[in-house]
Each structure stands twice: as C-alpha cells, then as structure tokens.
C-alpha cells in the first residue's frame, strides 16, 4: 500500500486571532477570550501569543489572569464570528481535496495523497497557510506526515505559523526523548499510570511490553504503543465528526458552593441543556455521568448505565441528582458537569419492557392494532408512526463544543 500524505491544520490561538482580525487595534496586545469576564466563572478559553508570553494560559480564571497581567484585555466569546471564520477556513481546505475531516471548530485533517502527485506537499502546505493568512488574516500551523497521529504531533511542534514534516524514521530522535505526558492521546492520569510502570518517555512507551500495558490500560495500552511507534491506520473520514459518542455540558459556579438549592438548580439547568442538545441531534443515551470539581480543584466523576436510553431533561436530572446526593460529602463545589454517553439515534431505539414501562406499552396496543389493520387493507408501509422533523437550531451561550457542525452539513 502506497504511503499516504496527511496534513493536520491547527489554527493558532483561534478565538483571539479572530478577534484581532476583526479589530486590528487589538493586534500586538495581550488579549484573552473568557466565558464570563465579570465573575470568577470566567475561565480563559484562549489567549493571544502576547498574553501567553506574560504567563496567561487556557483554563486560568479571570481573576488570576488579571493579577498576572493587569493590562490584559478580556473579551466575551462571539460564537457566530468564530463559526463564520471556521466555515471560511474549511471552504479553503475543501478547494484542495474532498478528503477533509473537521476535528473541531479550529482544526482538521486533509488527505492530500492524490493532490501531492502534482504539487509537492511542502509547497501545498505553504500555499494553504498563505491563503488562510492572506484571505482571512488568521495564522495556522500545519503538520505533514504519513498518518493522522504523526500529522497532529507535527503541527504542535512549531507555533505560530509553523509547517513541520514528521517522518517515521525521525521518531527516535524527535519524539522518543520527550516525556510521555506530551504525547497526543496521553492525559495526566494515563501518564501517572505509565510512570508507575516505569514508562517515563515516549521511547519507553514505544518499547514497552504490550501485555503489561493491556493488563493495566486495556485496549488503550496496545493503541498507545502503536502510536508511539508511529503506527496509525485511521483514514481521513469527512463524516467521522458526525459520529457523536456523547453529549454533555458543564458550568463553573460563581463561588465555591455548598447551598443545596443552588446546586439542585444548577443540575436542573444543565439537564435541560443536555436534553436540548440531544433533541437537536436526535439522540438518546444509556449512560449518565456527572463530573464534580471541588474548591481544591480535585475532580471526581460518577456514572450510571441504564437498561433504556434517556433523552428527556427530567430523566437526566433524576439520575444525575441522585448520583450527586449519594456521593457528595458537602465539600464546596466549584464545577458541575453532566454527560449522556453511549448515544444512539432515537429511531434505532428498542425499549425493553419492565415493570415500570409496561403500562405505557399497553396503552399503545390499540394504536398498534389499528396500524396493523390498515396495513393489511392498504399494504405494508401505508401508514407510519411518525416522521422526524429537524429541530430548530439553538444558539449556544455557554458551550465551546460542536455547534459548528451545522456548518458542515450542507
């Protein structure tokens, strides 16, 4: 099989760069986009490189950021503006190949194997980078490699406005000496587990005993060894981003909270938000997970897997609130999140009968019998139980998630 040529394009400081593009007077100044600039819940979402040079980083709260950099200019997020910029970026990318896989609002993969037969990959990357900078006034970095993992790794090597080629034969020199936590796909928790197994560098991981890792990390252990050796057979799939695995939402509270009624109201609000997102995507899921971060930044999660999938706000709230009240030790809460996972299209659901839902099915029996009689008379499919009506899109006020997917459905 011929080697593929994959690009990973990553926009540099995307939200901040879009703001600077729309308002040139912000260029050269330390700016940051925060979720809520007036309260502590204002977490820095992204910052300009001028701000980063002064110690500002993503997830830092607004108060700390202002203390560290008093001249920092804080801006509220402008989602329509960012989505418009994202749509323009991906329009440029699709002018080069149909094999474009959006990963998020500001990054994506391109398979340019065919295009590279007539244009050198480096020249092509330079042209794409220059077009996005010239036409949209937005900087990006591009990684070039034979697979998605290495392309993603390469794009992180030089920012801003970098173009990096990463070949498998270069891994021992460029990648393996780095700490394992720096590897794409390895979070802090996984890194701690690996360190406990005496695996400290990416090179250690590449040469690790696969059976040992599978025993400690499951299937992910085998996958990580392959990645460390530069092995990744995933294709660039333009439709992959629509394969939603979970839907969730979280919020940082204005203060460390212990008031029962405020916590309950927050759970109710998050449950409604998650239910609305499930409705928009026509999904339901069988696992409900809550995430709690306390005043000391300690994270904890609890989940419950159900026999029947849920999608309604009251169902989600009942499960999430019970998980919380059964496990909360009254430690002040800083952040709350709710996620519904193991999702499926609602049209594919088959509900299992139980003592709790059989009455509803009994109520449906006369309708089912009527449908059966009509189909016997007029033929199979003469009447349908219902049709899906596409939900009206809603404007997300708190999420930096995948609302931008609507821009890729046309």
UniProtKB/TrEMBL annotation:
Highest lineage ranks of the organism?
Bacteria, Bacillati, Bacillota, Bacilli, Bacillales
Q: Where do the TM regions start and end?
A: none
| EC category | transferase
Q: Which UniProt keywords apply?
A: Cytoplasm, DNA damage, DNA repair, DNA replication, DNA-binding, DNA-directed DNA polymerase, Magnesium, Metal-binding, Mutator protein, Nucleotidyltransferase, Transferase
For biological process, the GO terms are: DNA repair; DNA-templated DNA replication; error-prone translesion synthesis; SOS response
Task: Show the PANTHER family listed in the entry.
Answer: DNA POLYMERASE KAPPA (PTHR11076:SF33), DNA REPAIR POLYMERASE UMUC / TRANSFERASE FAMILY MEMBER (PTHR11076)
Oligomeric state and interaction partners are given as: Monomer.
* UniProt EC number: 2.7.7.7
Protein name per its UniProtKB record: DNA polymerase IV
